[in-house]
Amino acid sequence: MNQANSTTTLNFINGQYCDPISDGWLENINPADGTSLGKIANSTEQDVERAVIAAANAQPQWSESTLEQRSRILSKIGDLIEENLESLAIAESEDSGKPISRARTIEIPRAASNFHFFANAITQFSSESHESVGQNAINFTLRQPLGVVGCISPWNLPLYLFTWKIAPALAAGNCVIAKPSELTPRTAAMLGGLCNLAGLPAGVLNIIQGEGPRAGQALLEHEKIKAISFTGGTATGEHVARVVAPKFKKLSLELGGKNPNIIFADCNYERALETTIHSSFANQGQICLCGSRIFVESSIYEKFKTDLIARTTQLTVSHPANEETAIGAMVSGDHYRKVLSYFDEIDPTDASILCGGKPATVEGYEQGFYIEPTIIEVQNNQCRLNQEEIFGPVVTLMPFDNEEDLITMANDVKYGLSATIWTKDLDRTMRLSKKIECGVVWINTWLMRDLRTPFGGMKNSGVGREGGLEALRFFTEPKNICIAFED
Ligand code: NAD
């Protein structure tokens, strides 16, 4: 079955595409025009059981494969993603509403990099040894695969985040049951066929499609799944933690954000302004790392505000398949309505809309879910617009007078994922970086990623870190072995 051309998105279990056992289906809606892209398997615990059996059968052989064998297969999967870039980018853009240019130039290439990166990383992964000097003993640590692990990913960067979990899990010798978001299922399904072509043994990667509370929940609850790597919303993450904790599974949570984008008067103004457009509106603002709270030093506040509005109103909101589209469609009708509801509920004593704040009409696609890029000036950091993750093309703007106030506001939020700081003052970058409560700080840039670095959040933005060796550590069990020797 070639999932690239199919209107039916199936599960991929034991190296084969298959219908859901319950014959339950969901509809896949194209958010750019409201039409149907076909149907999606809506799996149940029966399908998860089938996948776990396949994974458990494949496990002994995969975990005993040499690092070179794993590395070669993972690298080949990365190559095949590159070779199929165009069809993957089209499916991604149609499922999610993201501009095709973004899928083609950023997200699908990154999915390939995830495999290439972990194909290399596993060959460099080593563990510690400790000589117990004076006790005639040496300790060393084995890093063993966990077994069968579960990976659950969201819709905003579909294949990019799906593979960010799968690649290290496979590299470390685990077999995987992975569930993409039911809103963006097709590139994940296509990955199954590419894994077959790359020679990944049947059962090593199994892809389960369907709704979170149904298919995802079955993954959380299955006794044989030893770890859950989850990326998604904070409320779902809380639920995942509650279900998984009593089962003593290893758990990694990458959750929501409400990130400060801090602009000092001494910054490289043009770069800060240009990058702020991206950090505010890339992927329609549906990136957990978007700088959705913009704080600008008072002395340049009015100028920055005027320039930001001018650039924002020039952004082209259009059908995602158009090359010139800067802002495509929101992922779904539900999410579109959720984002719009924030505009309806604005309290004029708290905030005023500077631009946008309403649906955008794209001629010929009136059933699509488009929203104008929106800037809202807020009076205080406590308002709902500054406290809740809106996850749309919406940013707030606020002046600040000094570092102390700024740090208080930056940290006065339940999230702690990332921060961006624009300044040329090196001392200030260090002072702020140490004090801001978050997992990633970008200085004079945004979303510049080196896959070796630890990635993740503090507070309600998550628990644990992904990326580089952190991911390989998560997907392995350290076992200390102590050998005594005689003089
Ligand atoms: P979501 O929490 O609704 O869904 C995420 C995944 O969890 C989906 O696959 C969904 O089907 C599944 N799910 C839902 N209920 C489940 C349940 N009961 N059991 C098991 N699985 C379940 O999130 P979303 O709306 O798809 O994604 C947007 C959110 O993801 C935003 O909050 C965003 O900030 C966050 N996110 C975080 C990061 C990060 O790295 N920190 C990256 C991307 C997105």
What is the terminal-to-terminal distance?
64 Å
For the sheet with most strands, the description reads: 7 strands, mixed
The molecules bound to the chains, other than polymers, are: nicotinamide-adenine-dinucleotide
Q: Which class of secondary structure composition applies to the elements?
A: alpha/beta
Low-pLDDT regions: none
As a whole number of angstroms, the C-alpha radius of gyration is: 23 Å
* pLDDT averaged residue by residue: 97
What is the helix fraction of residues, given as a range?
Answer: 25-40%
Give the number of helices: 15
Strand order of the largest sheet: 15-16-17-14-13-19-20
Silhouette: globular
Q: Give the beta-strand count.
A: 23
Q: What share of residues are in beta strands?
A: 15-25%
